[in-house]
Each structure stands twice: as C-alpha cells, then as structure tokens.
Amino acid sequence: MAHDDDEKTIDQLNEEADIAADYLEGxxxxxxxxxxxxxxxxxxxPMVQIVADDxxxxxxxxxxxxxxxxALQQLTRLAVQQKTGERSHLIVDVDGYLKRKRQHLRDIAxxxxxxxxxxxxxxxxxxxxxxxxxxxHDVVREEGLKSRSHGEEPHRYVTVYLKANADDEQ
Length: 170
Description:
Blueprint: H1 10-31, E1 35-42, E2 45-52, H2 55-62, H3 67-84, E3 91-94, H4 97-119, E4 123-124, H5 130-142, E5 146-150, E6 157-161, H6 163-168
Helix pairs in contact: 1-3, 4-5
C-alpha cells in the first residue's frame, strides 16, 4: 500500500527545501546570525543545513544535546506544511551536528551489540528520541541482532537482544 508521503516528486521535495530555506533565512535575520543555507534531497527527504560563519552563533543554533536543532526542525516543518498543505519529513541540520550525532549513536549501538554477544543477555539503553532510536535499530539489524523499543515518551528506550531471546518477548 502506497503512503502519500512516499509519492512526493523530486520537484515537491525541492520545493519543500526552498520554503524551508526561506523560512530559516528569515529566522537567521531576526537573530542577526551570519550563515549560509545548503539545500539537498537525501533518502527521499528534503534536507536543509545551516552553516554559520561564527562558532558561537552555530553553538546557539544547535543547543544543548541538539534541543535547538530539534525545535528548528519542528518549526520549519510547520512552516512548510502551511505553504504546501502537506506534512513534511524535512530534515534540518546545523553545521553537520546530525552527522556527528549519528556517528556517536552508531558507536553506542555497536558497543551494545558487542556486550549482548558476549553476555547473551538483553541490554537496555538510556531513553532516546525517535531519531536516535531509529539509528540504533538500524545498526542492530545490520549486525544481525534484534532490538525493540519499550516505555512511554519521553522515556522510550531500546533493548538489544540476541535473536533467540527476542522470540521469548513476543
């Protein structure tokens, strides 16, 4: 069954990126930060990255643990939705923050996989947001183990299992 979200054309995705870029340029003007905005489409999702000239500016745009990037992404998606009338899965990044974060999460997942292989016991990780959990699930699957999310937001967390243990949980 096709989801509407999967059916967007490259033109629609580029249009979303353009709307997002205009919106973020407006925000940068308001806070008086100097920065460039790079656009692209990756994995069928529009991607907009803010690259600032100034280190302190860019730190403010990322925030502690990426709270500001997350908020910018939510706001930008709303701005795009207002213009297009459709939900957007646009990604907003600041200065490669998400790439670094993804790499860090890969390391956490690989450490968990090693530990579960060694002990044979399921291992639960600390609570994470949906982006973080998805990265963990993807790495665990690539490594041939199983993982599941448990708990309620904002305390949802991932447990990593050996394949045999995962069946006991169902």
